[in-house]
């Protein structure tokens, strides 16, 4: 078999990562996973194994373009101290010469195994996607193993990828992202969907077909699916591409969300599911995956957006993108709440409490730290419009709450560098508005109403300035309490 991949000098690449840590550039995030060089995207292979959370992710160590996709690997006990990331697998043969694409992890017979999509294109650009297992060796590399699905099945284009394993009734299944060749009325066209395969007793994988939903024609491709189980309900997570933007949602180029209902593998149907909802309303969130461990669903997302690389000026410095903080998901009344994992409290260093000045109940200002967590509870009182700003000198990131319309708007138009624009979504606050913000060097994650909604986004301030927090309203607020914590950096050992 033709061997490629000599350009992936693993020892040299790993040494460069080690030399690049700890980060010094002012745009490098300190408590988000990112790399000193290259482009990273989707979290992959998330699995708890031997007392640690193992995190793999897509990585091009050779440049800031979406090519040469490898898997990087780090592990952590506590989401605060991480092993120095290493190159775990790279394109190496005819099957995955054009990328070791996304996939999942599992523990089998005491070993950490991964399942990923081998991406190969011919001269005409036609893809042959193959789904292949691998196993993590003690030297930190993945040994590639058997291909279990050699190509996309009939009726599905070459866009067939991102396998995710799950168990039901003692059997193993996988769900895959796919593009069907026909629309739901049977006419030719590209339609996003997911396929399910079941593992047979002899270890082969049988195509059970599409998992039907009520969504009909819902974009031209679904990427990175996942199946979760909460009490009596199932959640199908996926990333649809090609949905037009609406007034209060679907405002990114590609979306990432879920439907909740009851999955029947007998009728291959997602029964009684609700509407498609987004996991995150920020500008920079895509392709999440979850750890399922001890009853917790811990999600990591990619902070980035495919086909929008021009929005991210760190490319000039030789690196791109980070992963989100771990967030714990719960399903309540058909809606997923996401809260920062409790382990992150260990990052807290010093605290400043703030409360509103009795003489000036329409505004509040507070200095932040180089890395901050802000917790704020606002009793709105007479206020109808409220603006929270992160002020980097004259550059401002704004969160604007309109109580009458019950909308939150995130406004990046004042920033000079990187992606701009606004995102607007419904947020229900009656008397109380609660916010929790994680403000890293460029990555900002905002949790609203105790995780009812979340937004992840970047700001690339021109100056090396610690932001100031400003809150102001059109009429007096009744009460504001909260605190700002200085956060420690992630540690790499
Ligand atoms: C999503 C995605 C996946 C694919 C991977 C390649 O961002 O396009 O569908 O497996 O990225 O890097």
Strand order of the largest sheet: 25-36-27-32-33-34
Strand content: over 45%
- Tell me the number of helical segments per DSSP (H or I, 4 or more residues long): 1
Small-molecule binders here are:
beta-D-fructofuranose
Quaternary assembly: single chain
Low-pLDDT runs? none
CATH superfamily of the largest domain: Glycosyl hydrolase domain, family 43
- Amount of helix: under 10%
Shape: globular
Number of strands: 37
Report the top-level CATH class of the largest domain. Mainly Beta
Counting structural domains, the number is 2
Radius of gyration over all CA atoms, rounded:
23 Å
Q: Name the CATH architecture of the largest domain.
A: 5 Propeller
Mean pLDDT metric? 96
Largest sheet: 6 strands, antiparallel
Structural class: mainly beta
Distance from N terminus to C terminus (CA atoms, Å) equals: 37 Å
Enter the CATH topology name of the largest domain.
Tachylectin-2, Chain A
Briefly say what this structure is:
The protein has one helix spanning 10-19, and strands at residues 38-49, 52-60, 70-76, 81-82, 86-89, 100-108, 111-118, 130-136, 142-149, 156-168, 171-182, 188-199, 205-210, 221-230, 233-241, 257-264, 269-271, 277-278, 286-293, 296-303, 319-320, 322-323, 327-332, 335-340, 348-355, 363-367, 372-379, 385-392, 395-402, 407-411, 422-426, 432-439, 443-448, 453-458, 468-473, 479-487, 491-492. With 493 residues, the protein is mostly beta strands.
